[in-house]
Amino acid sequence: MTDATFLLLINCAIGLTFAAAFLAISRRSSVRLGRWCAAAFACAAATVLIEALAPDIPSVRLASTLSFGSLMAAVFFIAAGMLRHYRPDSRLGWPGAAVLLSVAFTGLAGVDLPRGGWAQALTYQLPFGAMLAFAAGTVLRHSPGRAVDLVLAGVLGLCALQFAAKAVLIPLDGADNGVRDYLTSAYARYSQTAGSILSLMLGVALLALVVTEVIAEATGRLERDGLSGVLTRTAFLERAERLADTAPPGSDIGLLICDLDHFKAINDRFGHSAGDEVIRRFGAVLASCAGPADLCGRIGGEEFCLLMPAADAASLLRVAQRLREATEHLSWPGLPPGHRVTTSLGATLAASGEPLATALRRADMALYRAKAEGRNRVQLADV
Predict the structure, then answer these.
(1) Could you tell me the CATH number of the domain that includes residue 122?
(2) In the Enzyme Commission scheme, what number(s) does this protein have (predicted)?
(3) Residue 110 forms part of a structural domain
(4) Which DSSP helix (H) or strand (E) runs through 235?
(5) What is the torsional sign of CA 202, 204, 205, 208?
(6) Helices (H) and strands (E) in the chain, counts
(7) Residue 349 maps to a domain
(8) Residues 310 and 337 in one domain
(9) By residue range, what is the domain housing residue 297?
(10) Strand order in 378-380's β-sheet?
(11) How far apart are CA 228 and CA 211, in angstroms?
């Protein structure tokens, strides 16, 4: 067994191990990136297996085409996975297929060119580098800039540079004399050693990203109230405290506390399933009235809270009235036709630096006044 063959087997084992790990993670999570990564590493493992078996494949052209095709598939799955993960609204579709086919045909053209020359090296190697550079650029442009994203972009960039280096190294060394002579060449030892290192780096970087997203997904589920879909009391208060602590000087935070009127009577008359449906639909209405930067939480049985960063009295009351009216005019499955559900709201503005607990107590007192004055109304607290 040559040194290159041994390195090929190591790379095959690395690819299969990462493919199995990503597949196992993706089966227990909705993070779809793991499936793209599993497919990529499975194709990478197939590539090195084909190269190891190349001397036994009857046709040199067939061996070269299979090797190129499987590696191109691996690189494509990485690039497509990055695009779908960081830009989930994107569609690969016909444009993606056209790009892939053009890149693939460019590389396949290199299969029939004279071995060891610049034309063959560039047309064969650079398509891989271009796809990986695209993947790195996607991460840099569209990621939230976390450390795990930046590390991944750097590793993808190194992988792209490796293919560019191979395109230069082959003609300079006269290294590539054909796929069947590959296993006995010094170039194979370099290529597979670099491949082992970069495969491990890329696998670990991708695994770190997938695990980060899985943890974020699990944390998000724990922070969401299972019935209403908004934040739980604990999650809401923790995030609200962070927002209050980091509010710019001179800016106010708007707080609304909402309480569903006569909710106990709904449970008593129509059953808890009807009450649950009221909670579920009100949570959806609250979320629809909130802005993208606002926080919504269920802080009690039928009590909810909305936090608006950088609010003023006019915008706070406008949202409160919209929420009150939307609740009043909504239809409620499980309740008799025409049965209205209303909500009372207490509103207040918290000045920068004011303890959140103080503002919440003030909003709560305003809510009690709204209840006392007849319900289905908004009461702004005196500051």
Answers:
(1) 1.20.1070
(2) 2.7.7.65
(3) yes
(4) helix 233-245
(5) positive
(6) 12, 5
(7) yes
(8) yes
(9) 233-380
(10) 295-298, 303-308, 253-260, 343-350, 378-380
(11) 27
